[in-house]
Amino acid sequence: MLGFHMQSVVETRARIPAAIAAIAAMFAFAPTSASALTFVQAIGLFHVVVGLLLAATLIIFATGVGLYIARLNTWPSHRETAIRVMEWAVTMLFVLIILIAIVNFFQRHSTIALTILAFVAIVAVAILIVRVAAQSKKTSAPARPGGTTGRPAR
Q: Does 12 score more than 70 pLDDT?
């Protein structure tokens, strides 16, 4: 019994320098100052994603144009497929341009945009609370004894 206790003490003493070394390494490699992105900077990163999506959309549109030209004098031409591809590409371009406009609005007018966003969030939470309350009211109605007719059982 004494041997087991001594072995436990020796293992604990061996772990202490390793723990101190780990804590010292953590402080040595920790950044000296932490800086978080502001709201405007975080939205600025969105431009990178939208730019990549715009490039992909332009490639899709060019593919649709190439398909349309390649199937010009063929029978059956199946050019409707190329037209659908180009329609989707134009739709995606429109959506991405609207997203860029919204992001630019948030960057230039961040206080107004955040106020509008907060109002929308509060209204959404209020609607959610009302729906949950109405749903719980429907399910918590007590059942009548004796069936649904309201007559006492004979």
A: no
* Sequence-distant (≥ 6) Cβ neighbours of residue 150 within 8 angstroms: 144
Q: How many whole angstroms separate alpha carbon 134 and alpha carbon 127?
A: 11
| Token pair belonging to 55 | 């490039």
Q: For the chain, how many residues are written?
A: 154
Average pLDDT, stretch 50-64?
93
113 SS3 class: helix
More confident residue, 66 or 48: 66
Instruction: Map out the domains of the chain as residue ranges.
Output: 37-109
pTM above 0.90, yes or no: no
The encoded tokens of residue 129 equal: 């609370």
What are the CA-CA distances from residue 154 to residues 23, 60, 151 (Å)? 79, 74, 9
Distances (CA, A) of 104 to 44, 45, 62, 122: 9, 12, 27, 23
Q: What is the pLDDT of residue 44?
A: 76
Can you tell me which residue has the tokens 């860029």? 100
